[in-house]
Specification:
heterodimer; A: alpha+beta; rbstp2171; about 55% helix; about 15% strand; B: about 425 residues; alpha+beta; four-stranded antiparallel beta sheet; two-stranded antiparallel sheet
Chain lengths: ~140, ~425
């Protein structure tokens, strides 16, 4: 069932927040929420790591991913925390924590990949565009 | 709504075409990018490494999103797309590429599109109301093309060119009119003849165009009438038809097929006239030859050869007379010792139904009557040759006049004075 959305932010967020993208991981009695990266973060972390090789690159990738993947700690949002500050704090974390979080992230990524693979896309090029099925459905109901 | 110009129309008048994508519980409408947006993406990523490819396609999708579940997405919110998972973005970008390809194909149709009525109408409205396309304003006859898509620019350019052609045609007509007026003043008769010929040519062209149109329509509708088909159809007996009815029908069709129509009549009359003319010319030539021979006989110097058989270098009267009198011809198409067989055997004449009747009438015509007709033939031919000479002369004069008029127009366009052009017209008049 397709529902009409009125607010553009809600519309854009509804795709950004598609299910199977986040997970809660318990680390030393803390609940850390991680979320798969968006296109921008994915690119940024990738670009940061490409200048390194071997183990250094793997370790850097784990860190770069975690800087961006951790969204909440104990339910408190980190959205408004400055990115540099966030980086400095995470850099102080033990390597084991980062490894554990990254493992969970990799599992989540696999689930997300599977989910997106299953999504069926149908496309229809047309001139009236918005084609607004919503409107069409409305019209049908009115009739 | 489904015609081949739908996408072209949408590209020109809306500035984009759209595609509707459905997945999960979402309906996302993507549109093609504007020139500014396309340039923006290209400019941003052209110098960056391939590591940024994902961002390049994210930016493309960002600009391409038109609506989500009926909610129109405006520019201030597009940044949110950066947070979308790459899997969705890649899939949307694939659909965008297909849409862009459709747009490219539609752009190629713009040269055909400008000839259809809808395009002409829209162009008139754009010109008359000073409307804008994609917020690009019209400045006089010039558009600010910077924000327009290539296809829109092309549509405007082609329409401007068409307008220019029309204007040039109009200008040329004015020049033609002026030169005609001058020629009319100089030689009204010849000018009338030229005008008449032009009118005939124009009518013929119009008729030909209409004929071609009709033929095209007939071919398209598969409605080609063929009398032979009709005749052959008639030969087949219908299931509910008696033998006598069938015979009657066949007889009627045959009569119809053999009867003479308008075209046949015109061709027959022309061939008859030509046949009569050729017979008369032959008859008259024979008569004149006979006179020449007779004169020769009269004027011949009679030299009695002496016994020494001296060669005097020219015919003697006795031989001439013998030659003429000895040639007595016999044949079906020979009358008064004149052989008409070469004319009668010409295929088009030999097919004439009343060939014998015409032949009898003409060959038995009095010499006075024949001479009268021959004179009329000569007169007609002379008139025709005089007219063609006059036309040639007039054309030469026209060329001179045209040169002058061109020069005048050049002066006019350079904002020179009225008196100068008046002086030139006077010069042309005086010259002729």
């Amino acid at each position: 069932m397709v529902k009409k959305i009125e607010d553009p932010i809600v519309a854009l967020n509804s795709i950004a927040e598609l299910k199977a993208r986040s997970k809660e991981v318990t680390v030393e009695n803390r609940i850390i929420t991680i979320k798969t990266l968006g296109a921008r973060d994915e690119t940024d972390s990738f670009v940061e790591c490409m200048k390194l090789w071997g183990q250094a690159m793997i370790y850097k990738h784990k860190l770069e991913t975690m800087y961006r993947a951790i969204t909440h700690i104990d339910g408190i949002s980190l959205e408004k925390v400055d990115f540099t500050e966030k980086k400095m704090i995470i850099d102080t974390w033990k390597q084991e924590i980062i490894d554990q979080l990254y493992n969970e992230y990799a599992i989540l990524l696999g689930i997300a990949e599977e989910f997106f693979e299953k999504i069926k896309f149908t496309a229809e090029t047309n001139v009236i565009g918005a084609k607004d099925e919503m409107n069409e459905n409305k019209d049908d109901k009115n009739e | 709504m489904n015609n081949k110009f739908n996408y072209t129309k949408s590209l020109i008048f809306d500035g984009y075409i759209k595609t509707t994508i459905k997945f999960d519980n979402f309906i996302i409408v993507l549109r093609t990018l504007s020139l500014f947006e396309e340039n923006n993406v290209v400019e941003t990523y052209k110098d960056l490494s391939n590591d940024y490819n994902l961002m390049a396609i994210t930016d493309t999708v960002k600009f391409a999103i038109y609506s989500i579940n009926g909610c129109k997405i405006t520019n201030e919110y597009r940044q949110k797309v950066n947070e979308w998972p790459k899997q969705i973005i890649i899939k949307l970008f694939d659909e965008y590429l297909k849409l862009a390809d459709t747009a490219r194909q539609a752009s190629k149709l713009v040269t055909e599109f400008i000839d259809i009525d809808e395009s002409k109408l829209r162009w008139s409205v754009v010109k008359a109301t000073k409307l804008s396309i994609n917020s690009s304003t019209i400045l006089g006859n010039d558009f600010d093309l910077s924000n327009l898509l290539f296809v829109q620019q092309l549509w405007i350019y082609l329409n401007l060119q068409n307008d220019l052609n029309e204007k040039n045609k109009l200008d040329w007509k004015k020049v033609e009119y002026t030169s005609e007026m001058i020629c009319m003043f100089i030689n009204p008769k010849a000018m009338q003849k030229i005008k008449h010929n032009d009118k005939l040519n124009e009518d013929e062209e119009v008729l030909q165009i209409e004929k071609n149109k009709d033929e095209k329509v007939k071919i398209e509708n598969v409605e080609i009438e063929n009398s032979a088909d009709e005749l052959f159809d008639t030969l087949n007996k219908k299931s509910n038809e008696s033998i006598s009815e069938h015979k009657n029908r066949v007889a009627k069709s045959l009569m119809k097929a053999f009867s003479e129509d308008e075209h046949d009549r015109i061709v027959r009359e022309f061939e008859e006239k030509e046949f009569i003319k050729e017979l008369r010319i032959k008859k008259e030539n024979a008569r004149r030859s006979k006179i020449v021979y007779e004169k020769k006989i009269i004027n011949a110097i009679v030299i009695e050869p002496k016994n020494n058989n001296l060669n005097v270098g020219f015919h003697q009267s006795s031989n001439l007379e013998n030659d003429f009198e000895n040639e007595i011809l016999v044949g079906e198409w020979i009358v008064n010792n004149i052989d008409y067989s070469d004319i009668v055997n010409i295929t088009s004449f030999s097919m004439l139904k009343n060939k014998n009747e015409i032949f009898y009438n003409i060959t038995n015509e009095t010499d006075e009557e024949t001479i009268k007709y021959i004179e009329s033939y000569i007169e007609k031919e002379n008139e025709l040759s005089k007219a063609s000479k006059k036309i040639q002369l007039l054309m030469m004069k026209q060329t001179k006049a045209e040169t002058r008029i061109d020069a005048r127009d050049r002066i006019l366009s350079a904002n020179k004075f009225e008196s100068q052009q008046q002086q030139m017209i006077n010069e042309i008049k005086n010259e002729n």
